[in-house]
Amino acid sequence: MIKMDANRQAAALDALEALVGADGVTRDPAALAPFHSGVALPLGIIAPRDTEQLAKVLAVASEAGASLQPVCRAVAGQEVAARDKIILLDLGRMNEILEINENLAYCLVEPGVTFRQLSEQIGERGLKLWVDCPGEPDESVASAFLKRRVGYTPYADHYLMQCGLELMLADGRSVRTGMGAMPKSTCWQLFKFGYGPWIDGLFTQSDLGVVTKLGLWLMPQPPAAQSFAVTVPDEDDLGKLLDVLGPLKTNMVVPNGVAVANALHEAARSGKVRRDFGGTGPMSAGEVRKAGESIGLGYWTLYGSLYGLPDNVRIAWSMVQDAFASIKGSRVLAAPAAGMEGLWAWRKGMMLGSVGNALGRPSAWAGGSSLDIGPISPVDGKEGLRLYDLSRDISGRHGFDFVGETNAVWRSAQHRQYLCFDGSPAGSKRARDCAIELIDAQAGAGFGQTHVEPALAASARATYESGAITQLHARVKRALDPANLFLSA
Question: The pTM is what?
Answer without folding.
Answer: 0.93
